[in-house]
Each structure stands twice: as C-alpha cells, then as structure tokens.
Amino acid sequence: MVKKAVFFDIDGTLYNHKLGVPQSAVHGIKELKDNGHFAFISTGRTRAMISDELVGLGFDGILAACGTYVEYEGKVIYNIDLKKEIVDKAVDILRKHNVFCILEGRNHLYMDDDNSSDDSEFSVKRFKNKFGEKIKPIIGEELYVNKITCKLDKLSNFEEAYKFLEKDFYTIYHNSKIIELVPKGFSKAKGIEEIIKYLGININDTYAFGDSANDIDMLRYVKYGIAMGNSSSEILEMVKYKTDNIENDGIYNGLKQLQLI
Questions:
Q1: H or E element: which one contains 51?
Q2: Chain centre to alpha carbon of residue 186
C-alpha cells in the first residue's frame, strides 16, 4: 500500500470557535491513520498557538507558522526565527504607523498592552485569556519570532508601513483588519515540500484541506487540494475538489470522497 500524506488547516477547516473540532473530523482522522496514511496539521498558527487537544487527535506532525516550523513525531525538523534586526525594524515601523502587531513564535507570543475596548478574536484580552503565560511583552528580552500578525484600526496606515517591510515579508490579507506578515520564501507549501522530502513521499500522494487565504499555496501545491464548503469564494473558484462546510462533516465527507477512508 502507498502511504498518502494529508494536510489539514486548523481554523475554519478542523476547528472553529463555536463548534470546536467536529466529532466526525476526529473519527475521520482516526480512520485515515488506521488505513496507514499520514495526517499532518498545516496551519498559519505558530506552534505556541496549537492546543494539546488538537495535537492529541493523532497527527504525525505539525507544519506551523506558514511553513516556518516543521515537526514530525515530536521532533523539530526545522524552525525559522526572524533575525533580531528584522524584528526590531518591523516593530518600530508598525508602531510608527499605528499598526498593532502580534509577534508569533514557537514558544511565545509577544505583544504590547492594548487598553482599548476591543473584544474581537484578535484582542489582547482574548489572547491573554487563551494563551496565558505564553504571552510576553515586546521588550526586555530576546524575541523568537516566526511571523507577525497585524491588527488594523481607523488610525493605521499599513500600506505606508509595508513599503519599508516588503523586502523581508509578503502579506496575507484575511480581511480589512487582519494581515499576516510572513517571511519571504516560506508558506504552507514550503512546509509540505520539506516534510514530504524528509519522508520520501511522492507529490502525487499528497492531499490538503483548507478554507482561507493562507491555504492557497498549499492547495495549489499538493496533488489533491480540497476546499471546505465554508471557504472564501476565491478558494472555491480555484480548487477542483470541494467538500461540505465544517459544520456539515466536511473533513469526514472529503476523506470519503477521495477514498482515503
């Protein structure tokens, strides 16, 4: 039997904050593994942001932070930390242009305090409630950072700030207020390229499930890219294979559709 490698985005694919992880997805991943195939998380979240609950579903490895971190069976294959001068420059420029930034690393998240009343998913209050001691200030110690998430408000001038940052980063726009800065040369596709090379898996035996902007490279790179039913219109138009919404057993039905379970 040829072992297939299946890569799963987290947010909007495996998990959403209302539903959590659907039981059908849990069963699907177990069946996939029982059939002898590889299952990997492939996410824009950094390793510090991935819960034990998700890891405990039986994944063989984790591709985190848009391909800047790769782990297999608990062993770190590689981890790319941004150079200190690049981080310092980015923080300085983003602050000057009123762009709130979250520096996301393998072990910690670094951010300034925010005294606003914002209670969105990316508010400091929510991050502190969710990640606790993993949150650290952007001062006073060495920062280990894979990528940066920017949160914009009406005073932000991200376009101007990015003119000074585009040499080192490319952007992923999630919406008008949330933008990721990812080191140039890295993406979810890069993470997949590295892990299949490490394990000797043929690209023709690769599959990926995703739903949003930072999944585009991944879905194009693998042989079988599967769009969740709740995907953005851009994804749905681009991808050949489609499954149901996360709420309607999208992972399980997609694995069935492709005869992986």
A1: none
A2: 12
Banded model confidence at residue 119, pLDDT cuts 50, 70, 90: low
246 C-beta neighbours (distance < 10 Å), count: 26
* pLDDT tens, residue by residue, 13-49: 999 988 999 999 999 999 999 999 999 999 999 999 9
CA–CA distance, 194 with 191 (Å, rounded to integer)? 5
* Neighbouring-strand partners of residue 20: 16
Say if residue 117's pLDDT is above 90.
no
The 3-class SS string of 148-177 reads: EEEECCCCCCHHHHHCCCCCCEEEEECCCC
* Distance set, CA 92 to CA 45, 65, 95, 122 (Å): 23, 22, 5, 20
The two tokens of residue 186 are 């890295």
Kindly report whether the global pTM for this prediction surpasses the value 0.70. Answer: yes
Cβ distance 103 to 137 under 8 Å?
Answer: no
